[in-house]
Amino acid sequence: MEDIFEGLNSRQKEAVTSTEGRIRVVAGAGTGKTKALTHRYAYIVNVLGIDPANILCLTFTNKAAAEMRSRIAGMVHSGDYNDFVCTIHGFCVKFLRKEIYRLGFPKSFTVLDEEDCKAIAKEAMDEMGLKRTEKTVKMFLEEIGASKALQGYIGTYMLPGAKVSDNQRKTSKMAAYVSRQMKNYALDFDDLLNLTRYILDRFPEALAWWQEALNYIMVDEAQDCNTDDWDLIERLAGGHRNLFIVGDPDQAIYEWRGARPDLFVNFGSDKDIILDENYRSTPKILDVANCVISNNRNRIPKDLFTRKEEGKPVIHFHGKSETEETDWIISQIRTLRERGVKLNDIAILYRSTYLSRALEQALLNAKIDYTIWGGTRFFERREIKDALSYLRLINNQDDDISFRRIINVPSRKIGRKFMDSLEAAAERDGISLYSALQIHISEFDKPGARAFIDVIEDGKQFALGGSISDLLNRVLEGSGLKKAIREDQDEERLENLDELLSSIKFYERSRSEEEVTLSDYLQDIALYTNDDHRKEAPTLKMMTIHQAKGLEFPFVFITGLSEGIFPNLRTIREWKKNGEEEERRLMYVAITRAEKALFLTESEGYNLSTKMNKYPSRFLAEIKREMVVTEGFIPEELWRGTKNLIHVIDEETDPHRPISFDDDFEEERAAYESPFHIGDTVLHPVFGEGVILSASKDYASFTIEFSSGATRTVRAPFLKLQDIPE
Length: 726
Ligand code: ATP
Ligand code: MG
Known about the structure:
With 726 residues, this protein is of the alpha/beta class.
């Protein structure tokens, strides 16, 4: 059994022993907030003798809850159960299993995930005759979520005795949606919180029971709670008034989802404890973190310090291409491995899920085991499997597995019954499902099935002469797959499809010498799609930065650090200055995950998702040059590109922002206005294709290396931009 006070500083000890009243710990990353919280839990159990059933300990993700449970397990007596170390929604499920009978629900209610909700929304929209082109599923669900916040729906549509007429279902979105849920007593995440609050509001004896039971409540990452979370927490803590919250406003990364860090800042506490020594990262890493976050205006300045040894310099690697970036990462991982570092101690972080694709392929090629935390491997993502199944079926119509996967994706109103008879026909004739469909199509009144055949036949024809990337584009549009995802406004899936397209384009370019056929491509990627990875062995971890919150890893790579990717262009467009600051906090979270070494990487090239050439992220530009060692050559022009982009993006979002270029603004203006930039591929009527190496000060002429090997300086009017892949 660990000594509860061992390895705690005096302020942490104070946090541990301040058990009564409203206590707040405000502190930066890696200062031991979570450690103090877990030790406090053990203190309350081991020293005060409180039963864990009387302590509620809330955190933000399931991963963080699991981590916390295992930390606590090492400190409290075995046999003590810590069921109430969980997320807020996890708590609500436990609460409702006990209390939901009050509303006449069975305690065996089910919980809907995001996909389930979308499916129900689609059915409801169909029933109401709402066209999905006019109202997307996402908008529909957002409206439902907003009206659910008012809680009126519970009494009107959910409680026993609530009768929903056919007419109501046709006219009211809420009626249509909720009555579908109620068929299976299925609750979505909003319901979990709403029903819990509803019961606490209306059943004083339930409120009294829980307020009495929960002697102590603790909340980690409290800066990311929203108003409903706060309402619930405050209500539960209303009895004993022992509420302990910890958080860091600099790590608030969920304002886009309604988090209210201001409620954390304005929490009325009896005592505040401030921690400022970071125990996680080396000074070099911490300097970079402090430097980046100091660029946020909307913050209370604080600097962390550490007594750790200097450590290795933070490295910024710049690659000429994405391949160079991933190759470099692989070589660094190999070097670490040679020095005895365990794979388990390495994490690769990125801003958006689609960015995992290039890294995954590189890791698979290098035979390095990896796990994606809180997500799915790129080639196992649904839309990727769907898209590839279309290509597979076009390549080989005997592929029944692909056929079954996509015949009804997107929906073509093909149900179980139709499939059963098709399977039987194929079996009887000893032919593939696709052939059976073609032969028997006239026997069925199924326009959707006809359309499906058209897509496959058109694809077969096109594949004879067209490129694979064009074929994929054609299939994604022709099949309606992309349209369906667009209607769902599912940006993540769209980004993944763009990424697949962009990887195929790259594949074609890198093999331009030989002719590549569809079947070559499908064979080549089988390595990535058939990978039956071992799960047990310790593996390298990959995850989005949001998933990495609260965690720590000895060696951290932050990849894809290009303007538009990180900070994310969409976030800045949507949330303006606040968006930029939230992205910067996300960068701060990412940097402060690293214990021993930090690698920051980015590369040049074109990004299909942002539809922009890549320039180093503004967050890299904000790091003082002496704080990082740069590997790879970054021409000054690239940094200039970054500045120009910041300028362009900010002008879009904030027209009043003063322009603050330090040097030679004229040149930057010229660069901004020029259609040609360093690294662009251009066409010359005589020399053919070439890449721009440098530009004159006024961006009127360019030095270009042509494919022939010749280097020439050419004036702008003689150049044309090579078609950018759209
Ligand atoms: P974050 O803001 O990222 O959630 P945190 O403030 O919760 O960070 P912890 O995860 O609790 O920080 O601690 C960071 C690291 O520092 C952990 O490895 C922890 O074991 C270690 N640590 C915390 N306090 C001390 C201490 N007093 N002495 C030595 N190590 C400590
Ligand atoms: Mg923590």
